[in-house]
Automatic annotation (TrEMBL):
Organism for this UniProt entry: Actinoplanes derwentensis
Positions with biased composition (Basic and acidic residues): 416-429
Main location: membrane
Residue intervals passing through the bilayer: 27-50, 62-82, 89-110, 116-134, 155-176, 182-200, 232-254, 266-288, 295-314, 320-342, 362-382, 388-408
Annotated protein name in UniProt: Predicted arabinose efflux permease, MFS family
Length: 435
């Protein structure tokens, strides 16, 4: 698909902001920004709202585990149905579900009637919506812009999210320290409503799988075969199964505990999260133009930077030290994220994109409940610092081992116009799939 898109000009197409001139991408981008504003505010507030209920580290871990548990249940089924349904409508549904779950959570926190089991149930609903949003948004991206703008579109989407995190994380931590965290969660619910309004304006494309053309299980097997055939993809997914256990358990659970015990509470931790977001913004600016020849070699090496803030916590670092390490981690992780997304969208066929993304999510994120569940007991067993340090070392070792995979070292960047043109040709001859 190399022809110009209506509404774009050659001058804009040469600039990093070119995707914003494409109507479909602009509508998606607006809805995403609305949702991200609320999420960035509530991330810190929700954690401290649970702790304000006199919840323990284990209670916080169980609530967080409930949020990611749907990855084990919803992801694969969702991957098939996302390929069956208009992906744009799936995105709207996820935002409506998230709005409802966050609104009820806010009411429970504000009235002081919240129980841990209730928050776990609501977190499960929110997690189920996220389990559908991730593969749906990744699969829809190549349909929003022409191939030559795919790198810039992914970078801009992530750059906006991370820029919002700079303001939202710091402001969310500040708000949680001066007002009831429930009000911040309620604001998050309202932003999901705004997001759904904009995403509903996105014209729907026809399903990639003709319903009834093949059985559900056949479609699931086809997705697995494609996933397994990508010899660069599955080693990176396995890498992230271990990285996510270490990072989410240590950074999102042990981090707030360390901040409350050693740094002064929610406001300092919000500043650290904001520093991480600053790093991702800087990385996103670089990623707008940075297109390495071997994207996954560069990406896998970038992942090792996640160990920095965890090792800083282990050594009892100050807010400034942990914040600086978080900034560096954010910078290099953003380089990885953009290269990974573009590699997926360039090398995986569009008609199988959601199912392959679902297997990715199942393996790399399906282990998150284990990370959250283990973090609390490990803090009790090893102490806050030692638990964070062990997580950091695990990230480094696993990432270096991933470079031994031949597929990771061989993968080269594909010119995006060539990749999309090849996919367009396939779609014209394949009666089951369509993009």
């Amino acid at each position: 698909m190399s022809e110009p898109v209506a509404g774009t000009s050659p001058r804009w197409q040469r600039l990093p902001l070119g995707p914003l001139r494409v109507p479909r991408f602009r509508i998606f981008f607006t809805g995403q920004v609305a949702s991200d504003i609320g999420t960035s505010l509530s991330t810190v507030a929700f954690a401290f709202g649970i702790l304000d209920l006199q919840g323990s580290a284990a209670d916080l871990g169980w609530v967080m585990a409930a949020r990611v548990a749907p990855l084990l249940i919803v992801t694969l089924i969702g991957g098939v149905w996302i390929d069956r349904l208009p992906r744009e409508r799936v995105l709207v549904g996820t935002q409506i579900a998230s709005a409802i779950s966050q609104a009820v959570t806010a009411v429970l926190l504000l009235t002081g009637t919240a129980q841990i089991w209730q928050l776990m149930g609501l977190s499960f609903v929110a997690g189920a919506a996220t389990s559908l949003w991730v593969p749906a948004s990744g699969a829809v991206m190549p349909t929003l812009v022409p191939g030559r703008l795919l790198n810039e579109a992914n970078a801009l989407s992530r750059l906006a999210s991370n820029t919002i995190m700079i303001l939202g994380a710091g402001l969310g931590g500040l708000l949680a320290s001066v007002i009831d965290p429930g009000w911040v969660v309620l604001a998050d619910a309202l932003t999901f409503v705004v997001s759904a309004f904009f995403l509903a304006r996105l014209p729907a494309t026809r399903a990639h799988i003709v319903e009834g053309a093949t059985s559900f299980w056949r479609q699931l097997r086809d997705g697995w075969k494609e996933f397994a055939a990508q010899d660069w993809l599955w080693p990176v997914v396995i890498q992230f199964a271990f990285v996510n256990i270490a990072w989410t358990g240590a950074y999102t659970l042990i981090g707030p505990l360390f901040a409350r015990e050693q740094l002064g509470g929610a406001a300092p931790w919000g500043a650290i999260l904001a520093a991480n977001a600053v790093g991702t913004v800087l990385g996103g600016v670089v990623a707008l133009r940075y297109k390495p020849v071997r994207p996954m070699v560069v990406g896998v090496l970038c992942v090792t930077a996640l160990a920095g803030p965890l090792l800083a916590i282990a050594l009892g670092g100050s807010v400034w030290v942990i914040g600086a390490c978080s900034l560096v981690a954010g910078f290099f992780m953003e380089i990885f994220e953009v290269q990974y997304a573009v590699s997926m969208q360039s090398h995986v066929p569009q008609d199988k994109m959601a199912r392959v993304s679902a297997y990715d999510g199942l393996v790399s994120f399906g282990v998150l409940p284990l990370g959250y569940a283990l973090a609390g007991p490990l803090v009790v067993l090893l102490g806050t610092g030692s638990a964070a340090g062990a997580a950091g070392l695990l990230i480094v070792v696993v990432s270096l081992l991933t470079l031994l995979a031949p597929g990771v070292r061989r993968l080269r960047a594909v010119p995006q116009e060539e990749a999309r043109a090849a996919q367009d040709d396939k779609d014209q001859t394949d009666p089951v799939s369509a993009s």
